[in-house]
Amino acid sequence: MRIISRLDHGFGPNAWYPFRGLTEEFKRRLAVYPSDFTDGVTGHRTMSKLFSTVVFLYFACILPAIAFGVLNDDNTRGGINVRKVVIAQAIGGIFFSLFGGQPMIILLTTVPLAIYIKVIYKISEELGYDFFAMYACVGLFCQMFLVLYSATELCSLMKLATRSAEEMFSLFIAIAFNVECMRAIHSIFKRNYSGCDSMNTTNVNSTLINATSEMDNGALCRRDTTILYMLLMFGTLWLGLFLYNFRKTPYLTRSRREWLADYALPASVLIMSFTGSYCFADIEKDRFKLRENVPIVHLADIFSLPPSGYFVCLLLGFSLSFLFFMDQNITSAIVNNPQNK
Fold first, then answer.
1. Are the C-beta atoms of residues 226 and 192 closer than 8 Å to each other?
2. Dihedral of CA 33/38/43/46: which sign?
3. Closest by alpha carbon to 129, among 301, 262, 258, 278?
4. Which of 77, 144, 236, 311 has its C-alpha lying 20 to 30 A from 273's C-alpha?
5. In 3-state terms, what secondary structure has residue 169?
6. d(Cα 273, Cα 281) in Å, to the nearest integer?
7. PANTHER family this protein is in (predicted)?
């Protein structure tokens, strides 16, 4: 009885019809829609907060886009690279902020999505399908299922979600981030550090003995690159946390402490990037591939797949739509939870 009453409260007392929730939400939001934009430029100290938020969100959006763009580039062998991820995220974010009814929602590429792209690529390789055709079909089927979720007000079922479900999803995201971080560390150690002792040293750095040596296959064994990678990674993490928690200290004035906390992320990234680029200019660094020769827009031939391929795309599209559904709704529930205010 308790579950039934909660469902009745979630779906409302009125008669149900397709897209009822979307229609009622549009009617409620239409009157206050302009205030979503005007409230950001009116009020005391609004412009300063707006500028700091824009700078913060710029780095908060561009850094994951670059990181997951590199990950997608490695997983798809350049099919989806950094440029495509950044441009697609910018176009999707602008479109969603204008027509989604809420400009404060920021669309980002996430770890589960990057992992799912890798799964699609592996399946397309094993089945011999064109990756872009399969990727486009999965996206179209995912869109179809999301429209069905919207038409049936399926998000009302999230009222049945408990706090444990939210915590489990948060734990999954945290584990996924840490796994990808550890995988990147392992990759750079394997590429630049391991096996150096067995190689013939042909080039000795004047400041770091045995730091750079020539491998038998012609590749460079660069231990200094690996150490610098670790230094910059943990240095950025420490500096960002230090600046963010500076508001809890008694130093400086309250406004300056808040200013440092607001710019903690971009400041830590810029400082450590400058440190790595200029203070350690002599050390070779691993940089992501820009792939300027790869076209940004690629028209996928979705009709090149066999009938069985569309069935596979249907299953993958349903799983992807379920991932989006859980990601969006549980994240919104976590943000709106009074305990997280």
1. yes
2. positive
3. 301
4. 77
5. helix
6. 11
7. ANION EXCHANGE PROTEIN, SOLUTE CARRIER FAMILY 4 MEMBER 11
Give residue-wise pLDDT tens across range 226-269: 888 888 888 888 888 888 888 888 887 777 888 788 778 778 88
Contact 107, 93 (CB under 8 A): yes
Q: Which residue from 233, 222, 235 is spatially nearest to 190, judged by alpha carbons?
A: 222
Count the Cβ atoms, other than its own, within 10 Å of residue 230.
12
Look at phi and psi of residue 337 and say left if phi exceeds 0, alpha if psi is from -120 to 50, else beta: beta
Mean local confidence (pLDDT), 80-109: 77
Confidence class for position 22, pLDDT limits 50, 70, 90: confident
Token representation of residue 48: 């300063």
pLDDT tens string 312-334: 999 999 988 888 887 777 777 66
Q: Given this model, what pLDDT does residue 208 score?
A: 43
| Sign for the pseudo-dihedral over CA of 63, 68, 71, 73 | negative
Three-class secondary structure of residue 258 per DSSP? helix
What would you measure as the largest C-alpha separation in the chain, in angstroms? Answer: 80
* Tokens found for residue 143: 């869109």
174-222 residue pLDDT tens: 787 788 778 878 878 887 777 665 554 444 444 444 444 444 444 457 7
Mean pLDDT, the chain, integer:
77
68 CB burial (10 A radius; 0-12, 13-18, 19+): buried
Token pair belonging to 55: 């700078």
Task: State the Cα–Cα distance between residues 223 and 213, nearest whole angstrom.
Answer: 9
d(CA 83, CA 294): 10
Cα gap 215→187, rounded to integer Å? 17
How many residues are present in the chain?
341
CA distance 105 to 145: 21
- What would the two tokens of residue 51 be? 């500028």
Question: Mean pLDDT across the stretch 67-71?
Answer: 81
Q: State phi, psi for 300 to the nearest 5 degrees.
A: -80, 140
Q: How far is CA 290 from CA 23, 283, 298, 320, in A?
A: 43, 21, 17, 28
